[in-house]
Amino acid sequence: MRPWTILAAALLAGPAFAQDNPLQPSPTWEDLRISVLGVDEEPPLDAAVLDLDAPPRAHDAATVPVHLTQPADAPPLTALTLVVDENPAPVAAEYAFGPALMPLDFEVRVRVDSYSDLRAIATTQDGAQVMAGRFVKAAGGCSAPAGKDMAAVRATMGQMRWRSAQEDGRHVGTLMIRHPNFSGLQRDQLTLLSIPAHFIDRLDVRQGDEVLFTMSAGISVSEDPVFRFAYRPDGQDIHVRVEDTNGNVWTETFDPVASSAS
Predict the structure, then answer these.
(1) What's the CA gap between 231 and 207, in Å, rounded?
(2) For residues 131 and 26, what is the distance between their CA atoms, to the nearest angstrom?
(3) Both ends of the chain: CA-CA distance in Å?
(4) Based on C-alpha coordinates, what's the Rg of the chain?
(5) Domains of the chain
(6) CA atoms 149, 151, 152, 156: torsion sign
(7) Is the peptide bond before 27 cis (omega within 30 degrees of 0)?
(8) How far is it, in rounded angstroms, from Cα 62 to Cα 222?
(9) Which is nearest to 69 in space by CA: 94, 47, 92?
(10) Which helix (H) or strand (E) segment is 157 a member of?
(11) pLDDT tens-place string over residues 11-59
C-alpha cells in the first residue's frame, strides 16, 4: 500500500477525537480577529451550526488532522477561514463551499508550530458568523523536515489521486495531492540550506461546472495534502485545478464513483 493511501485510510477510519480540548484564552487571537480577519465582534461558539475536532496532543505536528462537521439540520455555510493562532502565518486557509457539501463534513491536515488554539470562523448563507475550535498541543510543525528528498519532490509534484466511498449514508470523496508545500522555514537535509517557500495557494474542486469547494491557502496546510469531504453526487465528473506559488498549474478529471490507481 502506498504511503498516501495509508494516510487517506487513516483519515477515513480514524476514531473521533476526544472532546476535552476546548479553545483557551488567546491574546494572539484578539489581535488577529481585528487586524487580520477584520472581525469586530467575537463570533459565537455554536456546535449546532459548526464543530471542529482536532487531537488534544498531536502525534505529528506537521500533519495535524482537522475535522469540520455540521449537524444535519444546521444552516448551510458559504465560507470558512481556518486559523492556527500561534503559527508564523496564522491564516492556514480560506474556503468557499458549494451547496453539494452541505451539511459540512470536511477534513484536512495542517501544520501547528507551537501549542495553539486552532479555530474555524464560518459564514452562513444569511451572513452570520460562527466559530468552532480546539486547543492543540504540538510544536515544530512549520519547520519539520520534508518527508521526501528533492529528487522525489520534483518527480511526483502535482500528481493526484481520488477515492470514492459510502459512509453513514453519504457519498465521501478523498482527494490526495502530491506537493511538498514548503513553508520557507525548513532546511534541505543534505545541504542544510533553507528551502524557499513553495506551496499550493489555490485549489478548485468542481462536480461538472458546480463548485464543490475552493481553497486559498498559506504555509500551514500539510505536505502532500489530503482532503476528505462528504457531498451530494450528481453523476458528473470531478474536476480539480491546483495552482502553486511558483506558477505551476495541474488539472485532473476523475470518475466520481471510481477510485484512481494507487
Answers:
(1) 10
(2) 14
(3) 8
(4) 18
(5) 3-254 (2.60.40.2470)
(6) positive
(7) no
(8) 6
(9) 47
(10) none
(11) 444 444 445 799 999 999 988 998 877 878 899 999 999 999 999 999 9
